[in-house]
Amino acid sequence: MPLDTASTYGQTLLRTDGRRWNELRRISASISTQPSTDGSSQFVMGNTVVVCNIVGPREGRGQRDTNNALIETEVTVAPFAQTDRRRRTKGDKRVQELQTTISSAFQAHLFTHLYPRSSITISLHVLSLDGALLASCLNAASLALVDAGVPMPSILAAVTSGVITSTDGITPSDPILDLNNSEELELPFLSVGTVSGLSEHQEDKVSVLIMESRIQIGQNGKKLEAMLAVGVDGCKQVRTIMGEVVRTHGTRILRGRK
Amino acid sequence: MKSLKRNFKSDSQSNTISSKTFVRSTKSGKLQKVVSEIYLRSDIPCSSKLCPLCPSIAPADANGNVPKPILSSRPAGTKAFPAGHYLVPDTNAFMNGMDLFEDPGAFYDVIVLQTVLEELKNRSLPLYNRTLALTRSEEKRFYVFFNEFRLETYIRRNEGESINDRNDRAVVRAAKWYSEHLPRRKCPAVVVLTDDQANLQKAKAGGVTAYSLRDYVSCLENVDRLLDMISEARQGQEDRPQPGELIYPEYYSNSKILTGLKAGVLHQGIFHVSPYNYLEGTVQVAAFDRPLIIIGRESSNRAISGDSVVIEVLPKEQWKAPSSKIIEEETLNQNDNPEVEETEAVITEKERRALQEEVKKAHGAPTEARSQPTARVVGVMKRNWRQYVGTVDPGSTGSFASQGRKQQTVFLVPMDKRIPKIRIRTRQADELVGKRVVATIDSWDRDTRYPVGHYVRSLGDLETKGAETEALLLEYDVQYRPFPKTVLDCLPVEGHGWRVPASSSDPGWIGRKDLRGLLVCSIDPPGCQDIDDALHARPLPNGNYEVGVHIADVSHFVKPNNAMDEEATARGTTVYLVDKRIDMLPMLLGTDLCSLKPHIERYAFSTMWEITPDADIVSASFTKSVILSRDAFSYEQAQMRIDDRNASDDLTQSMRTLLSLSQKLREKRMEAGALNLSSPEVRIETDSETSDALTDVKTKASLATNSLVEEFMLLANTTVAKKIQSSFPQTALLRRHAAPPASNFADLNDQLKRMKGFELDVSSSKALADSLDKCVDLANPFLNTLIRIMATRCMTSAEYFCSGSHAEPEYRHYGLASEIYTHFTSPIRRYADLLVHRQLAYAIGYSGQGSEYVDEGLRNKSKLEGVCKNLNFRHRNAQMAGRASIEFYVGQALKARGETTPDSGINVEGYVIRVFENGAVVFVPRFGVEGLVRLDDFELKGAGEGRRESEFEIENYRLKVWEKGREDKAASVELFQKLNVRVSSEEKSGAREKGKRRVRIVVLAS
């Protein structure tokens, strides 16, 4: 039984994997990993690995919307992704909800009006899962959509944030960024995704926000506010990393053209 | 596609990231590989005030607060370390010396390594929690150093290296880093404390100063006191049992058990656990007179108190004397870890040790006669598991703030000490701590030390009246839910407006005698609402008296086999708690329609005798009737009325007649050998205004009028018993009290003979009554009562039975010295009486209203036997619940007193009723409670905090207690001794004690 955050954080200000409250896990990403698709990416955040393939935009069969492209999402979590081997069926309600969340996030974010009567399919494969399922999926999809060349106002970046709740009154109630699996089991957390403002001076806009745990609102600690602030800030960091990935890839392609 | 395997070399961060991988096996036997990342860093401070570097790199929390360094710049030292030292204990040190670390006199400036903390958590959650509490307290200066995350102190596990070795290496590395990191000049030493020889050598080889706990403590002041605090099981490390061999023996197969039982090799009986020693149980089997003893967890083999088990007698070498020591699970196994299952032994080291001592005792005992046959459980016929009420052991819960959904395993400690801890899984552990919780046992597999159960519901906060009362009712299986609608539908439609029909031509009057003209009155305890019985007496022309006992005619209202009858059968009896009554019948009947209230006509079932002035019975008759009670007296009122010389009205005269007759009846009964037994009874007086505040605890007073009512009730019961037995030779519901086997009295007799020179003659109840009368010590008038109380406990308990199931000589009621007996006089509160009413109505050929309902069950022997069994069970539980309720209220009264006067505790007299090797049981008559007095609860003159030692003279039932090293100032107690004790109610830290607010008894220095 490993240590838990709540009982030792107060003394050490360290989380169970050695990070501080505001540190992200190591993130690495690459795009165009699968040349046979329209767009693809691989996103690694700590021990969470997500691969994304995009098909489209292409003619949507039976697609009724004459003004926009429709975003469809398929998420498969590999049976070996977590500690205990578990096969998730197609009808898994959590996975279905995940798919809907991702679809609607990109439906609103992408310039879908440029592709009327067509569809874009995002297919996500979670190869290894150590927390931040939704956030990693959103990030991977974002990168893959960039690779597919679907126009968008900015890169959608997502991250999880949680809060260390203390009942003894001594441990500080610190918000923490980017929880791993054991932290997600222990602490209340939310997933937040943002897009950057239109100009440099505008603030980022929250486009996805999901919280499934219980937390007290409006206490003197302002836990929820702190979590959100840390999350939005974390999204910025993630976006910088993702932008870097896109730029490196772009540079390489341009160099190849010459 | 890229390989998933991370390429460490290509990554710029590669030297600061590592991963921890381990494999664990689940309960079902699957293997799981757990991989987690580790981010190595160089900004973890050493937290010493001496360090010039670390403050600059110390991290801040989200609010920008930087924690202050903890370890002092001038740490305490010993002779060996004049410049002071920082201590780095390893896991064993914490395991064996936790009390040392908590001691306020020593052990400051301690570095708790992450490696150690993690290992500690795996080994013992309670110890882990205690360590964490230490790190939170400011004055002890314990610093948690996350060595696994610091770049310099992190080490990788080598190929083929065991995890223990790796952890030992990590401790040495961390200690080394500390000593190199701190500035050279006037540097305090860094000392590794360990309790493991191998580790000690490793540390020394690694160039680190290392001491064993014992060696280190011996260079401190207060050596003796501190050395005592090192855990006894310090060698436990080497012979930690291996997993695999640690399972309970398997039960015999069904066929083997059956053949064994048939052949008489195996025996069947109910398993009872001793309330003083949870490792010892007894099973009474048909084949032997005295119960067989079952000692130890392995022998009791997963049986829980109350189970019906099959046992096998052990060979003679393993026979032992029953334990003379108090062993409580709480104190022995408080550091068990609920989560870890794989590496756990069935018998803990400490338990094994406690048993070893017992064996030595038994072998050393001079008289071999003391050793008794022992047995082991080889099968369980029927589990008698029920729902258990208890508290969650706060030490077994994990994190302090788990708002998440993480499931964890915790121990539920049942209120009943004889039940082992129950392992339950819960997601709401922190909410359950401090609550009364109901749980059930699901299973007890061979490979788990404790049974596995699940949470049922929470009753509320500990010590609140509601929760405690409900806990009590649940614990004694009392059905306390409101009556369902189907039951209430059986009540008369008129409700409170029901009256005896006015015209005597009404069907209700058929078969009923009009006794309204008799001067009937009732005598009951004050405030009694459910009046069962009323009496009258009047002179007859021939000089004899007519005496009548009129019992509420409940059978008129409760028809056989309807919903109300079934509910009453299930409840069996009304349960009286201090502040609450749980009725057998709905209020409307119990306190109004059936109750023989004064000045109102009521249906009754009357028994009438013609009695000579010398109290000889001439004749008896029974009839259903209508009576009009003239008055309802309390015992005191009746006594006053009788004593009042001016009162000469007919009612008073008849009461005087009754009193004089009852005294003669009583004499005759005593002549016949009825026992005058005693049980500790106290009454709790509640302030009627605010039923909350308890005014006082009083011992029950006994007046002549008490025995007036009692005598006639006994007479009625006996008369009725004869009548129904003649009509229902096979199926009369009777009550018997078997003569106790002489062996039951053996212990008490031996004690009396040795201590006081008395002897009890148990050949007959008459002989016993006489010999009890002789046990008088003029210097100690209470002794007689005390002996009576103890004698009562040696008896069997009276029971209901169906006349066909015993031979006629066995109908005898031993205590009352009556040939035949039943219960007839309290049908409102006992179901047995109601059945007897029905039988009697049938026996006298009652043909009025209601006789058309024939209860076939009255003639069905097997059904009646079932009813008897349930009634006996309910009856016993109701008694125990009542007693427990009084105990709780006595505690509350003491608590209330303690709150008003801070220096609480009342000095009263107490009597020693049992002596153990490490304590005694003291009975306090003033409060009717008895309690365990442990060695620490002996007040010794001028004694300090030192460990208590004791000497037990088993022959003389004497216990001598002294503080270690001060044998001259010893106190000694012996059986039956009168003591001055201080009774107070104290909150104890233990999970069991906490809830019950045990009354603590301290023996004062004489």
TrEMBL record, chain A:
A GO BP annotation: nuclear mRNA surveillance
Any one GO cellular component localisation term in the record: nucleolus
Subcellular location: Cytoplasm; Nucleus, Nucleolus
Molecular function as annotated in GO: RNA binding
Entry keyword Magnesium: no
Superkingdom of the organism of origin: Eukaryota
Complexes and interactors: Component of the RNA exosome complex. Specifically part of the catalytically inactive RNA exosome core complex (Exo-9) which may associate with the catalytic subunits RRP6 and DIS3 in cytoplasmic- and nuclear-specific RNA exosome complex forms. Exo-9 is formed by a hexameric base ring of RNase PH domain-containing subunits and a cap ring consisting of CSL4, RRP4 and RRP40.
Membership in a protein family: Belongs to the RNase PH family.
Record-given protein name: Ribosomal RNA-processing protein 41
Organism whose genome encodes this protein: Endocarpon pusillum
Automatic annotation (TrEMBL), chain B:
Annotated signal peptide: none
This protein's GO CC annotations: cytoplasmic exosome (RNase complex); nuclear exosome (RNase complex); nucleolus
Keyword tags: Cytoplasm, Endonuclease, Exonuclease, Exosome, Hydrolase, Nuclease, Nucleus, RNA-binding, rRNA processing
Record domain PIN: where: 85-201
Keyword Nucleus: yes
Cofactor(s) needed: Mg(2+)
Stored InterPro entries: Dis3_CSD2 (IPR041505), NA-bd_OB-fold (IPR012340), PIN-like_dom_sf (IPR029060), PIN_dom (IPR002716), RNase_II/R (IPR001900), RNase_II/R_CS (IPR022966), RNR_Ribonuclease (IPR050180), Rrp44_CSD1 (IPR033771)
Subcellular localization, as worded in the UniProt entry: Cytoplasm; Nucleus, Nucleolus
Top-level taxon in the UniProt lineage: Eukaryota
Pfam families: OB_Dis3 (PF17849), PIN_4 (PF13638), RNB (PF00773), Rrp44_CSD1 (PF17216), Rrp44_S1 (PF17215)
DNA-binding found in the keyword field: no
UniProt domain RNB: residue ranges: 512-846
Example of a GO biological process term: rRNA processing
Single GO molecular function: RNA binding
Family, similarity comment: Belongs to the RNR ribonuclease family.
PANTHER family named among the record's database cross-references: EXOSOME COMPLEX EXONUCLEASE RRP44, RIBONUCLEASE
Name recorded for this polypeptide: Chromosome disjunction protein 3
